[in-house]
Amino acid sequence: MSTTRQIPVNAPMQSLKDYFLLALPHLEDPNFAGTLTYLCDHDDDGTLGVIVNRPSEMTLDGLFEQLDIESEPGPHNEVLVYDGGPTYRDRGFILHRGNASDWDSSIQIAEGLALTTSMDILQAIAQRRGPGHYLVMLGCAGWKSGQLEDELKQNSWLTVEGDAAILFDRPSEQRLSAAAGILGVDLNLMTRDAGHA
């Protein structure tokens, strides 16, 4: 069982790949207020993540129609597409269980968890041949090198190791509080200085 830890603000920065980024209540940027972001890549070049608790009004059926993808009838067509972040809003990002090697353009984030941006996975989902668990996002969140680290020092965010059960087994409106629960905190009770003890 993995250990759960908060990254100390003055420690050398380790990779936050496969971590949740929890917006603290005082974060007022409309792009991120009240969000839970899952970090898919974090290195010296910057950080890439997807917001996982902001469903849009678009369904997969609507997305398939826009992309001219033929879809098999079924409940998957009514699944909501998420607003994944303010960057590349016209691109699809699919966070899913499985292996990156199964798809044309994909990165492995953690064991059994990948992020794919190629059309083949959407076609497979439409034909009910895709991964069993997935979230489809339009757009992503990105930080240039050092930017996220600066925001962490300003107590804009909390970090905690990612948990696939929160991503795929919890309704979107419960994900932020569930991630905070891993740390044993209630975000509604936090003040501006509570980000890093």
UniProtKB/TrEMBL annotation:
Signal peptide span: none
Any Pfam family matching the protein: DUF179
Any coiled-coil regions, as ranges: none
Family per similarity comment: Belongs to the UPF0301 (AlgH) family.
Designated name of the protein: UPF0301 protein GCM10009038_09140
Organism lineage string: Bacteria, Pseudomonadati, Pseudomonadota, Gammaproteobacteria, Oceanospirillales
